Write a sequence for this structure.
């Protein structure tokens, strides 16, 4: 009888001791690509793409979670991090980000994974598998300049006789050969709806887009005139870049 009581007491002590330790689990996981949910963990579109991996971690009680990431390319294998779980039974996100891909054959159909490895309070691992299909071109504005009567307007300013012939220059760079559709918008409302297009024949090579404006007069209005012209690229992706300028008509 005493032995039975002793065994029962030990069971109760062990149960009580075990109940005092926190544990965590991964309740869910997701992948976003360029800020949008990647359904079926798959992305198709221009690259590089910003991937965001999200694990929802749930603890049995408040505490600190220590973890690392491991990627299929070997990255992040040893960087230890930690986060706090402020409440029990509530999902808290652990996030990893990866800027990945290019418009090359390697990434036309690229499969990879990122694994969350929780070290404490208990070991848990969860891998997110994904696939990206890098397709199509994307463009950016690599630089911009202003010419006044054929000369570079340093500091985007011109002082001299008016009217002056202003030439606005944007250097557009594409990830692949493509056709670029664009329009201009000026501070005076001009060019707001005139759509144009041009061909970018090669990747990673700057091609200029120009806009001309004959402006100003020797009147008080243009003695110190500040304005702007904005390039609005509509396709293959939306990009805008404004050139601000000042002219001093003498």
């Amino acid at each position: 009888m005493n032995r039975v009581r002793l065994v029962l007491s030990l069971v109760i002590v062990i149960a009580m001791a075990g109940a005092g330790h926190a544990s965590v689990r991964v309740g869910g996981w997701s992948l976003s690509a360029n800020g949008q949910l990647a359904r079926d963990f798959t992305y198709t579109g221009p690259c590089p793409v910003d991937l965001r991996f999200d694990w929802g971690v749930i603890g049995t009680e408040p505490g600190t979670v220590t973890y690392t990431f491991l990627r299929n390319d070997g990255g992040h294998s040893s960087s230890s991090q930690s986060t706090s779980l402020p409440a029990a039974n509530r999902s808290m996100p652990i996030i990893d980000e990866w800027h990945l891909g290019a418009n090359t054959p390697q990434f036309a159909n690229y499969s990879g994974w990122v694994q969350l490895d929780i070290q404490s309070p208990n070991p848990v691992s969860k891998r997110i598998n994904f696939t990206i299909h890098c397709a199509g071109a994307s463009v950016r504005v690599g630089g911009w300049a202003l010419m006044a009567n054929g000369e570079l307007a340093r500091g985007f300013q011109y002082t001299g006789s008016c009217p002056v012939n202003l030439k606005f220059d944007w250097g557009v760079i594409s990830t692949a050969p493509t056709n670029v559709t664009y329009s201009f918008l000026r501070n005076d409302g001009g060019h707001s709806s005139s759509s144009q297009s041009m061909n970018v024949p090669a990747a990673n090579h700057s091609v200029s887009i120009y806009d001309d404006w004959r402006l100003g007069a020797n009147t008080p209005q243009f003695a110190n005139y500040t304005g702007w012209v904005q390039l609005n690229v509509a396709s293959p992706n939306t990009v805008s870049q404004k050139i601000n300028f000042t002219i001093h008509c003498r």
